[in-house]
Write a structure and sequence with these properties.
Elements lengths: L1 E8 L4 H16 L2 E8 L12 E2 L10 H14 L3 E4 L4 H12 L5 E5 L10 H12 L3 E4 L2 H10 L7 E3 L21 E6 L8 H14 L3 E6 L5 H10 L6 E5 L4 H7 L2 E4 L8 H8 L4 E4 L14 E3 L4 H13 L3 H14 L2 H16 L1
Parallel strand pairs: 1-2, 1-4, 2-3, 4-5, 5-6, 6-7, 8-9, 8-11, 9-10, 11-12, 12-13
Helix pairs in contact: 1-12, 2-3, 6-10
InterPro entries: Glyco_trans_1 (IPR001296), Glyco_trans_4-like_N (IPR028098)
GO molecular function, one term: glycosyltransferase activity
Organism: Christiangramia gaetbulicola
Length: 356
């Protein structure tokens, strides 16, 4: 089978990372895989071949040159299936298909809750047009699937659930945090509004008010990073927070931490929670998106969205009362159900269903 994956851009974010991991497994199985980015980016992604770009313009709605370039890739590579992996990939795939008339089926990987982004009737109508042209949707969670179908009911029979996954590896942490801090908390995620770093700073201020032997490590980069650094300064947390930017080995930081926190306001099924569980690091997260499908009382601590006080109290509780049984349950769940080697086969089976 020939598979063409579309990604948003060369960037070290969850959708692009997972697409490359999935593509590597599909290639190992014996399929011919190509990855194309809609926009230019600078990150080096873990894919064995080059990732070409449509050189799309993020400020244009009508991007004729990029649509044409995608049609040329389709005509040259002749894929059996095209998978649009979140971001603007679906828009470019559908508008290229409509404009230039190619016939390859489009699969959309729904990695979030689309309803959170539909703020007007015009947006909903435009998305209606896009989804009418897809042959199948792979949603990362039940919540993502139900949200999508709630807005576009005609997709019900076209939609399946295939979660995000992890690579099998032996996790050996080479990171050692400052020993003067007895308790280390980590957050991994790009500095975007969805990740709610401002809310995290407010939560952490409440924790620091209760105890001082604690430190927050923020892993990631993004457009809001400098703003959050300033916000941290305003809360007088300079001595209690470290900003690392992008790192190549986030698992090492997760493994070295005593706790991973994720107070996001929008999520699909965040891989960082699975990574923490795989590292046997405790997790606390807001109940958004599909998080409740993996974070339960047996595997972690789930908090009501925007409950900053409760989140801070949960952190303090974890510090004093770690639950080792919970960590074993979480690890076993991930090892059993969320490894990429198995998920690659699920995607291939879904493609075959679509093509029949």
């Amino acid at each position: 089978m020939k598979i063409l994956h579309l990604i948003h851009k060369h960037q070290n974010r969850g959708a692009e990372t997972f697409t490359c991991q999935l593509s590597n497994h599909q290639s190992k199985i014996g399929h011919e895989v190509k990855i194309v980015a809609v926009y230019n980016g600078e990150a080096n992604l873990n894919w064995k071949d080059s990732i070409e770009s449509l050189i799309g313009d993020e400020n244009k709605f009508i991007d004729w040159k990029a649509w044409k370039k995608l049609s040329e890739y389709v005509n040259d590579f002749k894929p059996d299936i095209i998978q649009a992996n979140s971001g603007d990939t679906l828009k470019y795939a559908v508008l290229s298909k409509i404009t230039f008339g190619w016939k390859t089926p489009i699969i959309f990987r729904n990695a979030s809750e689309v309803g959170q982004y539909l703020n007007s009737n015009s947006q909903k109508m435009f998305n209606y047009l896009l989804y009418r042209k897809v042959s199948g949707v792979a949603s990362v969670s039940k919540k993502s699937k139900n949200d999508l179908i709630g807005h576009f009911s005609f997709l019900e029979k076209k939609t399946t659930i295939i979660p995000i996954g992890l690579e099998e590896k032996t996790v050996i942490s080479r990171i050692k945090f400052d020993s003067s801090r007895r308790y280390n908390i980590v957050h991994v995620g790009g500095f975007s509004f969805e990740k709610n770093h401002e809310g995290l700073i407010r939560i952490f201020r409440k924790v620091v008010d209760q105890r001082k032997d604690i430190h927050l490590h923020l892993i990631g980069d993004g457009p809001l990073k400098s703003q959050i650094e300033n916000f941290s300064n305003e809360f007088a947390l300079n001595d209690y927070i470290s900003f690392y930017g992008f790192v190549n080995n986030p698992l090492d930081y997760i493994k070295a931490a005593d706790l991973l926190v994720l107070p996001s306001i929008i999520e699909g099924l965040p891989g960082v929670l699975l990574e923490a569980m795989y590292c046997k690091t405790p997790v606390i997260a807001y109940d958004v998106g599909g998080i409740s499908e993996i974070v339960k009382s047996q595997t972690g601590t789930l908090m009501k969205k925007d409950d900053k006080e409760g989140f801070a109290n949960a952190i303090l509780e974890k510090i004093d009362h770690p639950d080792l049984t919970q960590l074993e349950n979480a690890y076993n769940m991930v090892a059993r159900n969320y490894m990429n080697k198995k998920l690659a086969t699920k995607f291939l089976n879904f493609y075959k269903e679509v093509l029949e």
